[in-house]
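On clarity, I found the account of how folds are encoded harder to follow than it need be. An entry of this sort, consisting of the sequence and the corresponding backbone structure tokens, reads as follows:
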Amino acid sequence: MSKKVKRILIANRGEIGVRVIRTCREMGIETVAVYSTADQDNLHVRLADQAVCIGPPPSAKSYLNMQSLVMTAMHTGCEAVHPGFGFLSENAAFARLVKNSGLIFIGPDPDVIELLGDKVVARETAQKYGLPVTPGTGAVDPKDPETLEAAKKLGFPVIIKAAAGGGGKGMRIVRKPEDLAENISIASREAESNFADGTVFIEKYLENPRHVELQILADGNGNVAVLGERDCTVQKNHQKLIEESPSPGVTDKMRKAMAAGAVPMFKELKYCGAGTIEFLADGESFYFMEVNARVQVEHPVSEYVTGIDIIRQQILACTEGRMEIDPDKITFNGWSIECRINAHTPGNNTP
């Protein structure tokens, strides 16, 4: 579907809701916000052209309620749905429901989300396009004795990761074999709670790598732009604290090599919208980690060094099949740093 849209439902809340509203206003697009009863005074509710309560505070009964979100979009006359980040932003079933309801999903095609949104499948896809990956497993079961054997072959320490979602949720570092099963169960429960998908897998844990991500924009018609990289190596409890662009640890040679592997993959998949491909860098070597098939929290870092409104281009790509930028003429100016504040209970290191 390709059309100029007049009204978009934002299937999210908080900062990303406000961010999408800002760009939509500049584009002359009306917005409909959704909120749980706990968020009725949230800023995005006040700024949107219209706001609809979709349920009680538990996310499963509000922001993760696919049917409620789609029905709200249809009843309010929206032509498209912007999923933001987190919640259902990388959920292929939600994207498919939106599409099958005659609405535009502002994100990749559901089939592409299944390939890239699931980190286990994404690893396999990256390997297909020649990108190096860290040694790891497929989906694991804590009760399966082969899980422990697979971890031992990788060599401890290992890291457990949620197949869906991001933000450090469903992620646990395990240094001793006897701690593996319990941590898989904990990670799986956390993933289920946050992403409605408890699938987890295991990778070899690299002790001191740099965490580098490329910002991608694509129009679904083969035009793929790389808006440089962001370095998010400074983290605590898998939560990013500092984001900067360009990365102080990435050489021009590495930068070109990362893009050389990423761009053909996004082109052949006919990727549409904003996305991020993440790598772990160890010296001059780098390893594919995952693709976030959505816009990320830290997208403004790339906006500042390129002067490109990522949300605007994302909306244009997904609704009209075009972008206002030339992938071969992206320019970079200066340095951009974002400092993120994570709150936690005193005496408890968990955010």
About this structure: The chain has eleven helices and 17 strands.
